[in-house]
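in:
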């Protein structure tokens, strides 16, 4: 039996565990608890920052669902509509109760506990954490990996995810506003593994000079490259039908200003410098810039990298765009 002491994460109800392997965050199968006990009086007595972190973690559904669907469309993963719809509806309801959650109102705490539990269960239904874990979680994972290697304290997982959501939502907006299929060089979207290996290793050498983290990340990222090499027909279909896919994806992503507003209303951090401890600007930039190099799951950051957008200037612009929405650095 699991007794939930705070509304801090969806991990109480899922059948996965997140571990460090070779210095990299990895998700491995575990098991559901036989029973999960949630007492709203206990949640109300928890640190406000912990319940706010759970709220922030749930905001990932407004970006991760689009990542999940995108991966499916371009041939890089499975997708199931039922858990995506369920989580979207529940998360939208919670979004409107942000201020009530800060006041610890029982109904808001109940809604938080409910959607966290459903989010955990959804991972089991889908067979992966993809329904609630996309680019925003990758950023959080890299922040944790950096903290381990550099012996720095950690911020709450959900708080990091929520802050990252604002910037990732800005990345989705940039794609919606700027993608022109006529400007995409499809041949260039499939880089040679020999060119990418030093890119991955160099990215993680910035936190681990031993090369252990780079080796672990390359072992997983190389699998993504191998699968991606056979997805040209799906990418071409995606670009050809971009107007249709743009509207479908736009329906699943919340605007960055809406997410920033909700975080502030819930009493949660909305900027990297607002986290406890604050994340230095260069660390936040490193985490976002290199998040797609960590594992084999395809996300928006991969697409933006493959089409040639994901460089220092573009990533810096995302932080500025998020900053205008109350988020960013």
């Amino acid at each position: 039996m699991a007794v939930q002491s705070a509304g801090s994460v969806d991990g109480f109800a899922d059948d996965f565990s997140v571990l460090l392997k070779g210095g990299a965050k990895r998700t491995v199968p575990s098991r559901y608890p036989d029973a999960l006990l949630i007492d709203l009086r206990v949640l109300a007595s928890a640190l406000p920052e912990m319940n706010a972190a759970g709220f922030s973690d749930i905001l990932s559904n407004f970006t991760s669902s689009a990542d999940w669907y995108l991966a499916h469309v371009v041939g890089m993963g499975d997708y199931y509509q039922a858990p995506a719809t369920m989580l979207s509806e529940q998360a939208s309801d919670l979004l409107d109760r942000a201020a009530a959650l800060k006041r610890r109102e029982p109904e808001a705490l109940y809604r938080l506990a409910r959607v966290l539990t459903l989010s955990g269960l959804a991972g089991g239904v889908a067979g992966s954490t993809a329904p609630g874990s996309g680019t925003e979680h990758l950023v959080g994972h890299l922040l944790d990996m950096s903290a381990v290697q550099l012996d720095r304290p950690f911020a709450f997982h959900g708080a990091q995810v929520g802050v990252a959501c604002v910037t990732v939502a800005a990345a989705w907006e940039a794609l919606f506003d700027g993608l022109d299929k006529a400007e995409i060089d499809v041949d260039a979207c499939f880089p040679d593994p020999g060119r990418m290996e030093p890119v991955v290793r160099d990215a993680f050498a910035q936190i681990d000079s031993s090369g252990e983290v780079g080796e672990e990340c390359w072992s997983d990222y190389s699998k993504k490259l191998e699968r991606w090499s056979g997805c040209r027909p799906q990418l071409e279909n995606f670009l050809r039908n971009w107007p249709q896919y743009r509207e479908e994806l736009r329906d699943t992503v919340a605007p960055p200003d809406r997410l920033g507003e909700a975080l502030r209303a819930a009493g949660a951090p909305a900027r990297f410098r607002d986290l406890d401890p604050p994340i230095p600007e260069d660390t936040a930039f490193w985490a976002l810039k290199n998040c797609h190099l960590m594992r084999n799951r395809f996300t928006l950051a991969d697409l933006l990298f493959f089409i040639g957008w994901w460089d220092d200037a573009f990533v810096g612009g995302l932080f500025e765009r998020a900053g205008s929405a109350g988020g960013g650095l």
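note: Strands lie at 2-3, 16-21, 24-29, 36-37.
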